[in-house]
Amino acid sequence: xxxxxxxxxxxxxxxxxxxxxxxxxxxxxxxxxxxxxxxxxxxxxxxxxxxxxxxxxxxxxxxxxxxxxxxxxxxxxxxxxxxxxxxxxxxxxxxxxxxxxxxxxxxxxxxxxxxxxxxxxxxxxxxxxxxxxxxxxxxxxxxxxxxxxxxxxxxxxxxxxxxxxxxxxxxxxxxxxxxxxxxxxxxxxxxxxxxxxxxxxxxxxxxxxxxxxxxxxxxxxxxxxxxxxxxxxxxxxxxxxxxxxxxxxxxxxxxxxxxxxxxxxxxxxxxxxxxxxxxxxxxxxxxxxxxxxxxxxxxxxxxxxxxxxxxxxxxxxxxxxxxxxxxxxxxxxxxxxxxxxxxxxxxxxxxxxxxxxxxxxxxxxxxxxxxxxxxxxxxxxxxxxxxxxxxxxxxxxxxxxxxxxxxxxxxxxxxxxxxxxxxxxxxxxxxxxxxxxxxxxxxxxxxxxxxxxxxxxxxxxxxxxxxxxxxxxxxxxxxxxxxxxxxxxxxxxxxxxxxxxxxxxxxxxxxxxxxxxxxxxxxx
Length: 524
Hints:
The chain is α/β, with parallel strands linked by helices.
């Protein structure tokens, strides 16, 4: 079986292989979308193919909508050429369930796949046409938090951003500059309404997107490069909205074991590759079954009925609470703890770590004992039930090929929100004492021990990519007290919080030689 529309016509071979096919005509869907696009999505990676594209497929199968998604890739154009074009915009979603069952589904909800490239006359002209369409309701994004960045660490504009500020919307090169130029097309077409919906896994994601787009509108308007009303259009919530959202679904890189399973069932297009920009791609995407998407219900031009596919629509305050519940207590802190100690103990699969009683005790202490007393309860999801699902179903899933090394990426950027917020709550909540915290200080000390790049058996390992990796290593060696005072990393000054001495002592304990990490874990 080859992954293309022609092969889908021979439905029997797919059914016999246990692969679920779309219950709609992909060609008719693409034609309807060409006439009246309703949803454009930026970011054509694995999370898009496994989640938003699958959601729209459910609506198409139900007959709730007739149009699909126009996907636009603005970072790695090779994804379009090597993945979408050869396979008629189809993907194979492999859902790896904790009970060992595997669900294989051809995702056919992508109507078009375009490059967000102002030098590509055909694709950029088509994107402008999509943005001028009165039918367009939503532009969504999974471009990572870095995609919204306009400045370097010192606050100076990135070179392509600075150039776009001066040149205007005619032929921008920065990602947000190109988005702003497309929004300008919509403004010129009659100031049509639209929701710009970040689905990236970062706090207050809608505000990050809003800040970035607003900066371009302001610069272009003030410098006479855009119509004077453009900036007001972007700032008018009745015209352009930037809803907050919380997304939760694990989509690891394409796994070799999944590839082999697909080959054995007759699926011939299982080969993957790595692009020049180091993106791991394959015609299939493997993902866990559990997923959550909670979105602020603010859509000036209407929206797809995604609640029929399981999306929760609510108000901004509730989205914020759900995000804090997940990121500060119920999932992300547990993931980071497993990532740090998994690397130190030589693990290469998260699921294998969940067979380690010491590590399970660590994350249960982080979540249930130290997190739940100060958890933000959103009301629409039960925090304890959420942790139960994480600890009992999601993390132990042996069929999910996720690794501590992947989760350990950019840890310096994660500690402040994943642990700092809980520490702050202990400092201010009546009846709680920060001195009672044991697991969280151990995780912070574990990260410092991880920076040494030596595991618990004394073997060297490569730390995962992190923008502060080298600078924190230097500070660890030369100025540990100063590092522990850095609230930008830890969320609080650990000296002022009364935890610096504890973290320092734990670091010393973790650094006593082979086996010291294991002994420290056993003391929890």
